[in-house]
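Hey, sorry to bother you again with one of my protein questions. I've been staring at a protein lately and its backbone has me curious. I owe you a coffee for this, so here goes:
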Amino acid sequence: MKAMDIMNRQVYKVKENDTVRSVIEKFIDHSISGLPIVNDRNEIVGYISDGDIMRFIGKKSDRVVGNFYYIAVVRDPELMEDKVQQILDLNVLVIAKRKVITANWDEDIDLVAATLGKKQIKKLPIVRNGVLVGIISRGDVIRHVFRSVTND
């Protein structure tokens, strides 16, 4: 069995010039937690997950007060709201991962499963000749394995 046999061909994605706002809208509209980022040739240039956004929101802020330089965690709700508003208008590539782990469309499912497990990722974009053609989640692999073992 190959990746192409179980991959989801309908891949939700964003373009490299989109904003974080458009990412969050797709997360909400499609009940997903991660998206590949593609260029105009549909080649993967990044990947953004809800975890990337959470890390950015929770990131410490550098501040200078008087002669003191310190790093502070944003705990003030108004400051947090401002920070979230600023994030929404950022280009998606500012917080996305640029080194994206992918699998080839003709890769064996056991290798796909090994990659998902070893790299501790939830979804694996599938490419053919460098172009995004599908995506496989851990759940897709588990469903496939369960069905093949139980003949359902």
Remarks:
- Strands lie at 14-15, 34-38, 44-49, 61-65, 68-72, 103-104, 123-128, 131-137.
- Residues 25 and 31 are 10 Å apart (CA to CA).
